[in-house]
Each structure stands twice: as C-alpha cells, then as structure tokens.
Amino acid sequence: MYFGAHVSIAGGIVNAPLNANLIGCEVFQFFTRSPQGGYVAPLNKKIAAEFKANCKKTKQREWYIHAPYFINFASANPRIKHTSIHVVREELERASLLGAKYLMTHIGSFKDLGETKGMTQTIAALNETLKNYKGKTQFLIEISAGSGKIIGDTFEEIAKIIHHPKLKKYKIGVCYDTQHGFASGYDIRDPKAVKNTLDKFNKIVGLKNLKMSHCNDSKTEFNSHHDRHAHIGEGMIGTNGFQSLLSDHRLKNTNFILETEPDQVTDDLKILKNIRKKYVT
Is 266 inside any structural domain? Predict the structure, then answer.
C-alpha cells in the first residue's frame, strides 16, 4: 500500500516525478495534456527515457495518468464521441511509452441519448478505443459522484461496462474514488460501512478489478451526488473513515492517490502514512 498525489507537469512531463518527490509521494498521478483540451506537448522516446530516469532517481514505485475531463463516449455529438475515442487511445499509447501502470477516465454522461442508447454507444465506443491496443498500460474506469446523468456512479453500471461480452476481453479495471463513492451512496465512515461497501463491490464488480483508488475526503454529505474533495480528516468521511478503509485487509496491496488542493497535500500524505503505520498490518 503506497500513497501519492496528482502532481503538476509544469515545465514538462519529465518534472512530474520530481514534483512528486518534493511532497513525499511514493506513487503519483498526472495529466500528459491540459485536462480542458488545447495544445498537446509532443512525447518521444528521449523524453520518456528522461521521465523514467527521474522516476527511478526519486524511487517512485508506480505512476498513473488521468485522461482529460472532456471525455464523453455517450455524446450525441459525433465530433465529441470520436474525439473521446481518439484522445483516450492516444493517451493509452502515451502512457505506455512513459511506463504508466494505469490510465483512468470518466466515461461521460447519458444526458444526450438517455441510458439505453447511451450505454449502447458507450460500449461500442470503448470497443473501438481498445481494439488492437497492444500497450502495457491498463485502462481503468473511475467511479463518478453521480451528478446529473453521469455514467459510472453505481457498481451495477460499472459492472455492466467492464463485464460486457464485447469488452471483457480488454480486462478493464476500476479506479475507486473515496469521495465519489461516498457521494454516490457507498459509505466508508466506519469498519462496518467499509465491510458492507467492499462486500457489495466484490459481489457486483469483483475486488480483483479494483486496481487503485483516489483518496479524498468529502466536502458534501453522504449520497449528495456532488463532486467536492476535502483534505483528509476535514470532510464528511473523516479520519476514522480512512482508518477503517485502509485497515481492511482486502486493500493491503491497493495504492492511493490524493486529489486534494496543493496547499495541504503534503499534510494529507503524512496523515495517510501515519494511518498506515498505526493501523495497516
């Protein structure tokens, strides 16, 4: 069980592991491009080699890439759908070049097409995205907070995608976000709640498919369906919730990435490491 945070690539991707090391990361996450779209910095073997050398120098165990925020496989706009397919596939190739373990993304929203047509299009689009992909970076779906018609806010919806007959051959994994899950009605505030949530996840999705987790407290109430991250111990999940979650033996090999504001992310990492020292066996 290792801890890290989402870090900046200001000045170039090669700086990401250096930025991660500065705040005490053991693993880290980053964007390879602007999450809102626009210019995409070129990536080649020379840059990748320098990036990996910096990862080795700073003793980072693993690193992960988050896809841009504009992805929507269920869009009624063909341009948005095809851009989503192209960008996620391109990000998988870039991630593989950089040696990233996982690439995670949100899937999009059913608001245009409705759930039935939207799911059909999403399955087809993901199939097109992953078809003939030979890279080593594994593709993950991130659980959503559930605002509006967002896709992937329930275990059932995630399972419907990753276990679909057209997609199961790709071995799509899951990135669990503690705040998104909490906002979507999956409680982790005490040991009993953690057990119930992980039991349910295992029954519906399969814990073997849980590859990593984003580790964020929640500014909003349980089952609020709002995506609002808080520093560890300053939200509605609370320190006891994270102690309960991290001490569940089923997560002993799961790595956690903070997506909290930079002002206190170093403190958040220290809190998580302290919990690991005291409660994780």
Answer: no
Q: How far is CA 203 from the centre of its chain?
A: 21
d(CA 247, CA 274): 12
Look at residue 275 and tell me if it is in a domain: no
pLDDT at residue 281 tops 80: no
Residue 259 labeled ligand binder: yes
**What pLDDT does 207 receive?**
98
Is 249 known to sit in a ligand binding site?
A: no
| Residue range of the domain that includes 146 | 3-260
CA proximity to 105, closest of 127, 136, 138? 138
The total number of structural domains that make up the chain: 1
Question: pTM here?
Answer: 0.96
| 177 marked among binding-site residues | yes
Token pair belonging to 226: 């709002």
Residue 187 lies in a domain: yes
CATH (domain of 200): 3.20.20.150
229 is in an annotated binding site: yes
pLDDT, tens only, 47-82? 999 999 999 999 999 999 999 999 999 999 999 999
- 248 labelled ligand-binding: no
Does residue 242 sit within a domain? yes
DSSP-derived pairing of the beta strands 229-230 and 217-218: antiparallel
Q: Does the annotation list 226 as a binding residue? A: no
Interatomic CA distance for residues 94 and 100, integer angstroms: 9
Bridge partner list, 244: none
Question: What pLDDT, in 10s, does the model give residues 229-265?
Answer: 999 999 999 999 999 999 999 999 999 999 999 999 9
Query: Does the annotation flag 115 for ligand binding?
Result: no
